[in-house]
Write the structure tokens for this entry.
Amino acid sequence: MEERPETELISIPATPRASTPEILTPSGQRSPRGGHTSTGASNKDAKSWTPTSFISPRFLSPIGTPMKRVLVNMKGYLEEVGHLTKLNPQDAWLPITESRNGNAHYAAFHNLNAGIGFQALVLPVAFSFLGWSWGVISLTIAYFWQLYTLWILVQLHEAVPGKRYNRYVELAQAAFGERLGVWLALFPTVYLSAGTATALILVGGETMKLFFQIVCGPLCSSNPLTTVEWYLVFTSLCIVLSQLPNLNSIAGLSLVGAVTAITYATMAWVLSVSQPRPPSISYEPISLPSYTASLFSVLNAMGIIAFTFRGHNLVLEIQATMPSTFKHPAHVPMWKGAKVAYFFIAMCLFPIAIGGFWAYGNLMPSGGMLSALYAFHIHDIPRGLLAMTFLLVVFNCLSSFQIYSMPAFDSFEAGYTSRTNRPCSIWVRSGFRIFFGFVSFFIGVALPFLSSLAGLLGGLTLPVTFAYPCFMWVLIKKPTKYSFNWYFNWILGWLGVAFSLAFSIGGIWSMVNNGLKLRFFKPS
């Protein structure tokens, strides 16, 4: 007689809300296990109810041990299969979401590869206009600011129950609306992807040329390859490596890119500080003839610092490669990997900025650390050591090209699969990647000054890193109005927009004032 109430209690939860996915992917092995979809429920309901909320310690306390064991097992099962996400079958065909077996190690490799690169080499150039105090302050504020917005993006990846925002533009559409989200996010993310790929071709090709000159020395042939031909050689290598199918498949390349970036960044500042400083060195900010020129130069320098912290346009894409369940959400390994990655990024950026400025002061060439090493210490540093530094830069550029090009590959294949309703064949996929590689090459040949536009690139793409995540947090998470969280994110977002406009103006002024002649390396 006493067991009847227990039976009634057990029969209460029929789990009507733990729905199955509306659409199943054609490739179950490569697709994630779904997450919970709450249909017709408000956000408040989604936060307050889970598929196992009825199985609480208070509910289990009066039940005997065998029945308790059954319900505990059922709770674990529901936590695995009751977190069902509405899946898009197209995701199983696209390079970003094709493979979902990522982990914290992959996240660390990808974030390191995306976060350290050639842009770090021009940080001392920014210090030559800002000086010691403002240079260190600006770099420190930018680092912690972008670390906060990185955390926001990681948390917003699954902000809505039953939905994973696998791409930056998707999250922007959820926050700002379908049309406005595309207008706000598509241009800067495409600009970051395609513009960075083009700049990597320029930097990689020029570095290969210098590496050849250092290794070959006076024995070089009378008809060496031109700079454009070196661009073509580097582009061909990039296209060969780009045939790897998806984002998870380039984890090994990202590891190579991360290791080479840490190594050459360390070698660059160690070799610089170990050599005698130029006799006429000065640490006063570079003086310009007018106040306006000085102001715009400072803004351009701060834009260079902002451009150093790129890679936020890839955060959601990296997190999309991880499986996610109710018990093991993807944001946990993603944040673990990101913390490790940005610790090493800080260990590279701050020494190269401070050490490079200490070694060269305001005599720092406009091309950054590699130009300074080549100009001041070509005869002081062993040729083999200098050649190794340049070779590491080439390897890093090859690896970085892959991860920054992946969103473009994903967009091409998304357009193809949406029209044909079938996955890309290996020939179509290869064709898209060859097309993208050579388009980037031709843009680099037509605009060879692109690699010098770090300030302008930093200004135009700054909202992706510093502004939009703050706005998206307020619009999606909806913190209490006029609370500290609400004010803090609105202020940071609008400051990011203001800095974007100011840095873009400074970058345009610097570009025009210097006649588009700045290069990462002096032409030889």
Residues 178-216 form the longest helix (39 residues). Residues 87-514 form a domain with the Hydantoin permease fold (CATH 1.10.4160). The chain has 18 helices and no strands.
